[in-house]
Every structure is written in C-alpha cells, then in structure tokens.
Amino acid sequence: MRGKSIGNIDWLTILLYITLVTMGWLTIYSASLPPEVTSIFDTKQIYGRQMLFILLSIPLIFILLFLDAKIFERFSFVFYGIGILLLLGLFVFGSTIKGQTNWYKFGGFGFQPSEFVKTGVALLLAKYLSFPQINLKNVKHQLIGFGIILLPIFLILLQPDAGSAMIFLSLIFVLNREGLPGWYLFSGFGAIVLFFVALKIDPKYIMLCIAIIMLIYYLRSRKVTRNPILFLFIFIIISGFVFSVNYVYNNVLESHQKDRIDVLLGDNVDVKKEGYNLNQSMIAIGSGGLTGKGYLEGTQTKGGFVPEQHTDYIFTTVGEEWGFIGSSLVILLFVTLFLRIISLAEKQKTKFSRVYGYCVASYLFTHFFVNIAMLIKLFPTIGVPLPFFSYGGSSLWAFTIMLFIFIKLDANKVNEW
Amino acid sequence: MRRIVLPSFIIVVAIILIARIFYLQIIDDSLKLQSENNAIKKVFDFPERGYIYDRNGELLVANQPSYDIMVIPREIKNFDTLDFCNSLKIDKEEFIKKVKKATDYSPRLPSVFLSELSKREYAAFQEKERKFEGFYTQKRALRDYQVAFGANIFGFITQVNEAIINKSPYYNSGDLIGKQGVEQEYEDILRGVKGVKYLLRNKYNKVIGPYKEGKFDTLAQQGKDLTLTIDYELQKYGTELMVNKRGGIVAIEPKTGEILALVSAPTFDPALLVGRQRSKNYTALYRDSIANPLFDRGLLAQYPPGSPFKILTGLIGLQEEVINTETGFVCHHGFSYGAGRFMKCHDSGLSKLNNGIYNSCNTYFCSVYRNTIDKFKNSSKGVDVWSDHVKSFGLGNYMGTDLPIGKKGNIPTSKTYQRIYPNGGWKGSTIISNGIGQGEVLTTPLQLANMMAVVANKGYFFTPHIVKKIKDKPLDKKYTTKNISTVDSKYFDPVIEGLADVYNKGTAASLKVKDMQICGKTGTAENKIRVGGKTYQLKDHSIFVAFAPKENPTIAIAVFVENGYWGNRWAGPIATLMIEKYVNGEITRTDLENRMLNGSLEDEYKKIENIIYQRFTETVTVDNTKQSLTLKEEETN
C-alpha cells in the first residue's frame, strides 16, 4: 500500500519545486561569485554551501515520502509542541544576530526554528479544524484557532522578529476558507490599508470619508435589519484605530521599522542611509530591461551594490540578469505552484489534508509576496526569504518539509477510508 | 465562494507585481542610468596632440608633460603640511581650502588638487611625493611652443566648458580643447580620438575587472601633425618689425594662396597661455582693451583701404572700357564735383593711367570711378556692376580661410545707396569717395593681400589658407580651386607697370631695393574717435600693399600700421623689408631695417590713451573695426 502511494505523487508540483530550487541556486551562484572561481561544491563559498543544502534535502524528501502519512495527523500536536519548545529554547541557547535572537548555532551552521514552527502550526491547525464538531462560526472555536496561531507569533515577536511573525497571520486565509466569518479577513485588510493611509493623510479627513460611506450604507440597508448601535460601535472602533496610528507609529514602532515605512512612503529619504537598500534594489531590477544583462553579467550584482543579495534580495539578481522576461517567468512559476497546491487541496478527501494544503499555499504565497513587493517599493522592507530561492539551509529545508508533507498527504488520498 | 478568495488574491497580486516590474524595467529609464553611474567606470586614454610645423618643416609647436596633483581626501595621513606646502609653493590656507573642496566633492574619489604643473614646478614635489599619503600625480600633455610668436595663428588649449560638453558628446569635464587659431579650426585632427576603457567597479568604488571582457573598449588614435603654410623666418621677422607698433601684416604666396605670414601687433608669447598661469594671463590680455593683443588685426581689423583701392578702380575702368591707357584727366590740385565740392589732390597736370597710379592722383581715379558708374543710365546698375567686379577680387565677403575668425569688410551695392538716399537722385559723383578706397568701402589686411595676389596672378586667386599639409588627408578642395576675377588678364599689365613705377619714380621711390622689381602702392587712411561727444582727429593709418618680383611673383603682401602717419613712412618700409627678406633671404637696406626695428609709435598710442582715459571719466573703448572715418579731404600720397 505504501509503495503505491509514492506512485501517486503530483509530479507537476515536484517539477515546479525542482525548477525553482535550480533557478534559485543559479541565481545565488551569480550573486556570490568570488573573483577566483572554485568548484561549485566548495563549501567555503555561499553557492557551494547552498549546493550542499540542496543535496541534503534529497534524503529528507525520500524520508518524508516513505513515512506513513498518518504520522503527520496523529502527531501534529507533538510537532507543534516541539516547535514551541524550540522557540522557548532560543531565549536560553539562541544566538543573537543583528539584535534578533532567532538562531541556534551548531559549529559553522545555523538553524532558525521559526521556519520549522510554521509547519507545526499548520499541522495542528489542520488537526483542530478537522474535528467534526468544530465550527468557525462559534466564537470559542474561533478563539482556539487564533490561539494556535498567536502563541508562536507571540514568542517570535519577543525575539524580536516581526517579519517572521507576520507570516503566520496569512493563516487567516485558511480560517476564512474553513468558515470564519468574512469580516475578519475584510477588517484585517482594511486595517493594513488604513494604517498606511492614516500616515499620509490627516485622520480627520479619513474619518469624514468613512462616516459618509457608512451613512450611505446604513440608509440603503433594509430598515428591518439595520442596527444604529452596531454602526455607531463600528465607527468608534475605526476612529480609535485611525487616530491611534500616529501614536503607534511614533511610540510603538522601532526606529528601523519607522525608517522602512518612511522609505516606502517616500518621506525625507536619504538614499545613502535608510533608503540605500531599496534604492539599490530598484536600480538593480530596473536596469535589467526587457531581457536582462545576461547570466553572470549583472553589473550591480557583480559590484555588490545590493546588500544581502543572496538571501532576502535574491530576486534583484533575477531582475537584473534575466530582465522582465525572466522576472515574469519566475513570478508565473510561483503562481502556478500556489494555484496547483490550492487546487490539490480542494480535491483532498480529508479536511486535515485540505486545511494543511491551504496553510502551505498561504505561507508560500505570503513569503513570495512580501519578499518581492519590498524590493520594488510596494511594501515596507521586511526580511523574509523567497521560498526555494533565497540562500539558507533552514529556510530551504523548512519549505521542503512543508511542501513534501503535503505532497505525501496528497499522494495518500486514495488510501483514505 | 470561499474557495476563490485566495486564488483570486494570488492572481491579482501577481498581476500587480508584474506590472510594477514592467514599469521599473521597461518604462523607467532613470534606473538604467543610475546603474551605469553606479557600476561602470570609464577610463580614458588621451592621445598625444599633433605637432605643428612651418612650411619648411621647422617645428613650431610640440608637447610637454605636465602634472596634476590629485588628492583622495580619505586617504590623507598625518604629514608635515608645511613641507608639503613649501614644495608646491602654496600657503596653508590654500591647502586647507583645496582639501575641503575635494572632501566636499567626495572623500573617496580623486579630485584635482593642483593642475598643470610644469616639469620644474613638479620636480620639488616629486622627491617627497611618497611621504604625502593620499596624494598622487597624474601626467598629461601641455603645449610646448618652440617659438615666441604666432599666438594669433596657433590659438591655445583650454579646458572644455559646460556649453561644449553639452553640445558635443565627445568631451567630458576636465578635457582639453583647442581654442582660436588652428588649434580650434583643426581640433579634430590635432587631438586624435581618445581611447575608452570600461571597467566594472563595486560598491567601494574599487575596480573589479573589465566590463564585458572589454567588448566596448576602444583604442586611442594619435593626433595628426599639421604643416602650416607659414614661413618661420618671415613670420618671425614680421613680428620683430612690428614691435612697438600696432597693426597687421598678411603675406600670401600668389600662385597657391598659402599664407606666408600673418602678423598682428601687439602680440604676446603663446607660452603665456600654457599651464597654471593661463587663466590669469588670459584675463590680463583680455582686459587690455586699448592695445587689444587678442585682436587679430590681420584678419579682423576693417579699415577703409585708401589709395591701394585705386588699383581696382583702374582695372575696372579698363574692363568697362570707360578708359584706356591713354585716357587723360587734367588735375588742378583737386577734383571738383557737385555744387562747389572739391577733393584736393597733391598732383597737377595731365594724369594718365601710369602716372595716375604712381602719383596716386585723386582727380584721375575719381574721374575713372565717376565714368564707370555713370556709364550706365541707371546709377544702381552702375554700382552693382562695379560692386561685382570688386567682389570677384575676394573683397566684401568672408574669405573662407581655414581660421575660425574673419570679417567681411564692406563693398557697397545699389541697395546701400537706395537706403541712404531713399528719394534717389544719386549718381557717380555723389559716391565718388569709393573710387579712392574710402566712403563705404572697408577691407581687412587679409583681403588687401589677397587683392594683390589677384593682381600678381593677373586675374585669379586661390582662397588663402594656413594649413599646407595634413598627414594622410588631402586639403579641402576650395583651397586648390582657382577663383577667376571678372577683370580680364590683359588689363593687368598696364596697372602692374604703374605699380612698378611707384617704386621707380612714385610715392615709394625712396624704398627701392637694388636689383628687384617690386610692385606696390601706398595708402593712408584718416581716423577719428569720438569721446565724450567730441570728435578727435587721430594720426592717419599707414597702409602699403605690394607684390614681388614683378615677373613671376612669389609674394603678395599687405601691411597696416595704426596711426603710422602715411603710407611710406611705416607700412611701406616694413612691406619692402618683408619682401626682400622672403625673396632674397637677406636685407640690403640695413638703414631702413634698423629704423623699422627700433622705431616706435608708442607715443602716438599714449596720446590716444590720454584722450580716452585721462581727460574724460567716461569709459570708452576703441573698436578698431568701427573707427569713424569721413571723407578725406587731403590725400597725402
């Protein structure tokens, strides 16, 4: 039975995975090429180490595919628990890099637990939602669902690593899919948009607009159902939020977080200081033109103008060397992968597999969006890796494990009873 | 419904991302430019500028190494500032100022600290250069003049200005370019083409290798040497003769149109405009608005030619058949025209063409001119016929020389007089002063020299030019094409006889050179200036034109000496000496030579200066091109 399930794996997803990892390595090679070219397996070089990570993920994939698919559901609470313990352990054993305590160091290699916790959270959430009595219209069930997500967020915020913590919020897509009332998602996005708008425009005018919109909506709704107290309550909540934006911005956010928002909104930016990364990133991508400067020919990449180019800024090398055609191709490959995972998830016979698949798609998509959008001035700079592309063993293995658990679950769906 | 939320969101986001990238990569060009500034460094290889030789291969202009002291402010280490300043002969304030300026530009990039040091200035610094960290030298080439004359011919080298950089993509800030003279006219040939190397640099500005394996790199092309038509000896001699005088000499080889000498006085040593002192010296020369040493009088000064113009009046009269060689006019010490108007003349008796020329008889030439114009019933037609004849001698328009400056002069046409006399009623006698080279007629010394070349050639000329040969490149066709005058060659012989008799028995008899037949003509032009509303009569300008030898001429010359009293007092002797020098190679008239070499008109010029500066507070500049000249009542020679 088990052998048979291997034969049912989704080869399209695997092919997309291989393509992205390969392109990722080629890009890292270009971005980290030293003056004297050495072997591609030279672990003194970044590209050599990434090659090692890629090769080591092959046995990992085989282990995952040959494990019993039931393990992931049965031991989901254990995986989640291990994840939480690892996060707690950071406060004792973790190393601090650039003010963030989010790594375990083993000799030359580091290990970032928050990458793996994502999978644990996804498994437990899938397990919880797959109980037949769970209904997300029920406030108590909602709170437990949120609790599963918020616990690791809380621990990661303490590191403090706001970027990684934010990724977990993407699971709201999953809850929404599984029956969470729509206004949660709506108000979540509303809050994000209002936050940035309130930094640019005087809150008084924003509230005037919102009052007008709400009034029109109120007058047009059916008399029987309209509830003036509810409308007033919502209005007060929104006002409170909008008027507190400036306070949050000035007093809660760290100065580097403020800088990143300023850079995005274009207020008093010094391109030699806080604006440097974004400026260089845009120059590298923008100078690529239609077809790019050619592989290994990127002048910005070779000159090392873009900081952290092999990790969070890896897509700038794609943009510079492969141009608009290459960038679009990479984006389309990612989108194909996300849609494929969602379409597979929808076909799952068990709720557990479906929810898990949805979690994987949400995570990957959020990483992808945040990573690329920050390079082209659509989103504030948040240090998250581009899945399968960015350099780093933790992120590569974490995404590989996350994806291949789903591939295994999917391959096993015929064996469900 | 809930199933399509995430997929739709993904698709919308993907479209936004792709659209944004499309904007950055395809539409917004500024990022590409920034990328080039960022990562690609251009390094230029400047070729050596071509040398300049005289017509006989004598080296006139070469190159010398010069040194720019460069500074990278961030790399300056503690050292003995006093020692540093002493070795460069600057003071401490200047040192601090220059370092600050460089730091403001960029602490990491090299800036020029001191530019264009000569080898000697650099020597003191060179010994200690290693001690001064953060400073290094960059070699470049400056002009090295082998002669102290010819500044007006060569022009000079200067740094390109903003306007040139914006106009020509070839030049970058700090590049050198030829200005004025042949340096400007033949800039493309002399400078060669600089080579470019494209280098890739990293964020620390460190070069990390060639860009695209040097695919776009170009090699420097050497500048080409120029051989001028100038005769070293003659140019030098002319410059010496004009010391302490103001004016110009232009000598042309009639058979080719090659300019043998182009002297403007006062002049200056071309070496003044080389190196660190260039800007200071140039300003001083520029500010001298009275002596005006930057004004090339040979090419730019427009004067009424006076008597030499009678040569053309005679030739045109012959061509239009209003006279023949035997036609005579009686002169009673002057010429009556119109109601009671009279032009004086020192001559008397019966004037024919021959003695009319050598005695420079005003009556004779006024009559010829009047008859030429009045030959036609319509005076406008008459003036235009005359004007076309004159212009066929190269007068009244730009000559088209290979020098960047020039003046048209003026030869009036019927339009001129229709404007002055809108009601008509003018005829030959109304504009009679044109016939003796005054009135509305203006010429430059170059044009007069060329006119003499036409006479020497009996009816044709080649456009005067200053470059004889460019390596691997033929001369412009216009310098090898004959321009034929509208006066037939048969009419020249009697006029040439008359010009030869100027030396034999006429106004230049005192200048005769043994065993040589020179054909010449004296001239005098009145001039006045207006200062503070009053008109001052100044000493006349001395003019002389000539060619020699009479048979097979090898030189045509025009000499102009400002305020030189009359034709044979200064211009005549100088022209004669120049001819003797060029034709015979040595001077027999040493008395004349000494008088000319040592003679000075500075007292005259001082007087003018007094008029302008001391007696009046108003600032008045004398523009040599527009000196008011009125009808001259008395023609001395």
From TrEMBL, chain A:
Pfam hit, one: FTSW_RODA_SPOVE
InterPro entries, per database record: FtsW/RodA
Keywords annotated in UniProt: Cell shape, Membrane, Transmembrane, Transmembrane helix
Membrane-spanning segments: 12-31, 51-68, 75-97, 143-175, 182-199, 205-220, 229-249, 322-343, 355-376, 388-407
Primary localization class, coarse: membrane
Keyword match Membrane: yes
Subcellular location, record wording: Membrane
Membrane topology value: Multi-pass membrane protein
NCBIfam families attached to this UniProt entry: RodA_shape
Name recorded for this polypeptide: Rod shape-determining protein RodA
Native source organism of the sequence: Flavobacterium jejuense
From TrEMBL, chain B:
Pfam families: PBP_dimer, Transpeptidase
Keyword Flavoprotein: no
EC number of this enzyme: 3.4.16.4
Domain Penicillin-binding protein transpeptidase, chain residue ranges per copy: 247-575
Swiss-Prot/TrEMBL keywords: Carboxypeptidase, Cell inner membrane, Cell membrane, Cell shape, Cell wall biogenesis/degradation, Hydrolase, Membrane, Peptidoglycan synthesis, Protease, Transmembrane, Transmembrane helix
Topology of the protein relative to the lipid bilayer: Single-pass membrane protein
Domain Penicillin-binding protein dimerisation: residue ranges: 47-209
A single MF term (Gene Ontology): serine-type D-Ala-D-Ala carboxypeptidase activity
Enzyme class: hydrolase
Residues spanning the membrane: 5-26
Principal subcellular localisation of the protein: membrane
Protein's cellular compartments: Cell membrane; Membrane
Claim: Transmembrane helix is one of the keywords in the record: yes
Full protein name: Penicillin-binding protein 2
Gene: mrdA
